[in-house]
Write a structure and sequence with these properties.
Strand content: 25-35%
Helix content: 25-40%
Distance between the termini: 26 Å
CATH superfamily: Gcn5-related N-acetyltransferase (GNAT)
Number of strands: 7
CATH class: Alpha Beta
CATH architecture: 3-Layer(aba) Sandwich
Number of helices: 5
């Protein structure tokens, strides 16, 4: 990492334009939703009474990535397929802009995200989970380095692999 001043900054009206402009590398774009879609999804979930907190990943004043954390985001139908999501945290979106990849930002941002989750902003939880495309070896390696363990089987209808971390 070029600079150790990495921080998570809550998305607000002053920074959302900069975060919308961030894009992963071309070969990774199929793995993550556009940031504008993620912000709309966060808004819709908050409007429905759920917790969704989007963050910009910053190096000093420079936005280098985006992540979004949720809590207990699934409805009852989804819970039948993946009951572990009930009353647990999710790292819902995670991306580093193509200009800032391979500099250690992802690893530091993941560390900060887990540190934030362990403050239990929505209450105590046993797990944090996330999911990723099976072909996304970079994500798989990063998540495993933090102790995430892949689920034994895919929930019915899922094409992403869920991975779980005991908090």
């Amino acid at each position: 990492m070029e600079n150790g001043n990495i921080q998570l900054v809550k998305v607000n009206r002053d920074n959302f334009d900069d975060l919308i402009d961030l894009k992963p590398a071309e070969k990774q774009r199929e793995y993550v939703a556009d940031n504008i879609y993620s912000l709309a999804e966060a808004y819709a979930n908050v409007a429905d009474g759920r917790y969704a907190q989007p963050f910009g990943i910053y190096d000093g004043e420079t936005p280098v990535g985006f992540l979004m954390i949720g809590f207990d985001i699934f409805d009852e139908e989804d819970l039948k397929q993946y009951p572990l999501s009930k009353n647990n945290y999710i790292i819902w979106r995670f991306m580093i802009d193509e200009k800032y990849q391979n500099r250690g930002y992802g690893k530091e941002a993941m560390r900060l995200a887990l540190e934030f989750i362990r403050t239990f902003p929505c209450g105590e939880a046993e797990y944090c989970w996330l999911s990723y495309e099976p072909e996304n070896e970079v994500a798989k390696k990063l998540y495993r380095s933090f102790g995430f363990v892949e689920a034994d089987k895919l929930p019915e209808g899922w094409d992403e692999i869920p991975a779980i971390l005991k908090l």
